[in-house]
Amino acid sequence: MPLDAILWDYDGTLVNSVPKNINITQSILADIAPHLTGANLPHWLQSESAYHHANHAARNWQDLYQNYYGLSAQETTEAGAL
User: Fold this and answer.
1) pTM score
2) How far apart are alpha carbons 14 and 17 in whole angstroms?
3) Among 15-19, 23-27, 60-64, 67-71, which is the least confidently predicted range?
4) Do 48 and 54 touch, CB atoms closer than 8 A?
5) In Å, what is the CA distance from 72 to each residue of 6, 28, 49, 68, 76?
């Protein structure tokens, strides 16, 4: 059967996945870097607008995790395995 159409959803067009992404990142921090949870939660994970800013400013996910979320290089390597 030939395709009639392809639906492509840029994040946030049909579904806002930012709250899910923030929750997943918080779970990763709880496992890898518990010192960055609770009252020490990085600013960039405290609101959708801050999260968007960090994601668009970071060069890649390692830059995001180290320079915005505050993980060490070792913690970032461990987070990458998740």
Assistant:
1) 0.80
2) 9
3) 15-19
4) no
5) 41, 13, 24, 11, 6
Q: Which two tokens stand for residue 73?
A: 């290089």
| Residue 16 pLDDT > 90 | no
b/e string for 8-47 if b means 16 or more Cβ within 10 A?
eeeeeeeeeebeeebeebeebbeebbeebeeeebbebbee
Distance of alpha carbon 59 from alpha carbon 54, whole angstroms: 10
- Sorted by where each begins, the domain ranges of the chain are 18-81
Q: What percent of the chain has pLDDT over 90?
A: 76
